[in-house]
Amino acid sequence: MLFGETKGYVNHPQLIRFRNSFNSKLYIGTYLYYVYLEGLKRKYSFDLRKIRAYSLKIEKIPITIGQLRYEYAHLMKKLMKRSPSYYQKLKSILEPEPHPIFTVTPGEIEG
Q: For residue range 69-96, what is the model confidence (pLDDT) as tens digits?
């Protein structure tokens, strides 16, 4: 989608946010860089060379609290089926934290 290589879900809320940013390729790269860092902590293998550009000093993208809660609830439903043990670890989290490139603003679920 952003590079013309996406084969999956191209209307995911995160991708829409990146597309609407001033530099979508930088934002998707920065998003993935943080995924890479989390993967290191979990001992996952992630090829850093696939990230074409990133910056730890970019302006944060706003996300409404309603949208964050909606996406978290959606994740939890998927985890119940796909990874019940991970679901058990996360189910006590009442207020999810956003990814580091997002800043939470008041509001309902986004369009």
A: 999 999 999 999 999 999 999 999 999 9
